[in-house]
Amino acid sequence: MNNQSTQNLHHANESLNHLEIREQRLLLESRPTHLWLAVSGKCNLSCAHCLGIPGRGSTRTRDLVDLDWKVFEYLEKELFPYR
Q1: What are phi and psi of 19, to 5 degrees?
Q2: Is the pLDDT of residue 29 over 80?
């Protein structure tokens, strides 16, 4: 997909998103306009504010796995052209 096509998709999606928000639609046709990915849940720190440490209000463990590459490829195909 060339840069102009990507820009057109991005602009059309952003415009649709703003319209849906103004109209307070419950179901959106637009794609997400922002995406944050945690490519790994692994961490060797023990931050006082982190809920990811067992015993601090979360059942998550520090033995989380990395994001599967197939998931990333799916997200890239489905969402990145719109961003």
Answers
A1: -60, -45
A2: yes
